[in-house]
Design brief:
Distance between the termini of chain A: 37 Å
Largest interface: A-B, 29 and 31 residues
Number of helices of chain A: 0
Helix content of chain B: under 10%
Order of helices and strands of chain B: EEEEEEEEEEE
Mean pLDDT of chain A: 93
Distance between the termini of chain B: 36 Å
Helix content of chain A: under 10%
Largest sheet of chain B: 7 strands, mixed
Strand content of chain A: over 45%
Oligomer: heterodimer
Mean pLDDT of chain B: 92
Chain lengths: 112, 114
């Protein structure tokens, strides 16, 4: 049973545009919300993460926005580049049992 | 170099055979995980372990088994009871407990059952 819902499933953005991926969760025991980036044939790698006591975190062109009351968080990629083309996963970690649950992923394609 | 190593990268097995996927980490992490990745399904949790000699079922544990005899190792056995074992399998590890506990992934094992 998926406890983290991610949308859209796929996304096409022009070079230089903003890519936005959304996630929603239900379990209030989640206390850590990472985003992972995965290239074909490789394992996912951490991109950026946020704790629920922060509403926004920015690292370079990547920003996480977090809405605790709505139980939603999103990834914004500014000035999207062809090298950003990959699959992105949101995730949530349960602090009580270390369980990490992933969304179904978003395949992002940046047009050159 | 610290990291998490999965082997082999590609694995072919005949239907009905059990197969064991290796996962080793030298990051001194307490928690380890096995995920299965299928197109359009994301990463689905098979088993995870918070400590040596203990592990819990994830969302799709049926047809799989694991052991955690050492902190560094968390092998996954795909048994003949798994109905559709062909998939990309990912192992991960992370520090245990609350806080910013990044999970590190291996490069995956692609299992094909013929």
């Amino acid at each position: 049973q998926q406890q983290v819902k991610q949308s859209p499933q796929s996304l096409i953005v022009q070079k230089g545009g903003i890519s936005i991926i959304n996630c929603a969760y239900e379990n209030t025991a989640f206390d850590y919300f990472p985003w992972y980036q995965q290239f074909p044939g490789k394992g996912p790698a951490l991109l950026i993460a946020i704790r629920p006591d922060v509403s926004e975190k920015k690292e370079g062109r990547f920003t996480i926005s977090f809405n605790k009351s709505a139980k939603q968080f999103s990834l914004h990629i500014m000035d999207s580049q062809p090298g950003d083309s990959a699959t992105y996963f949101c995730a949530a970690k349960d602090y009580m049992d270390d369980k990490i649950i992933f969304g179904k992923g978003t395949r992002l394609h940046i047009l050159p | 170099d610290g990291g998490i190593t999965q082997s082999p990268k590609y694995l072919f097995r005949k239907e009905g055979q059990n197969v064991t996927l290796s996962c080793e980490q030298n990051l001194n992490h307490d928690a380890m995980y096995w995920y299965r990745q299928d197109p359009g399904q994301g990463l689905r949790l098979i088993y995870y372990s918070q400590i040596v000699n203990d592990f819990q079922k994830g969302d799709i544990a049926e047809g799989y088994s694991v052991s955690r005899e050492k902190k560094e190792s968390f092998p996954l056995t795909v048994t003949s009871a798994q109905k559709n074992p062909t998939a990309f399998y990912l192992c991960a590890s992370s520090p245990s407990g609350a806080g910013d506990t990044e999970a590190f992934f291996g490069q995956g094992t692609r299992l094909t059952v013929v």
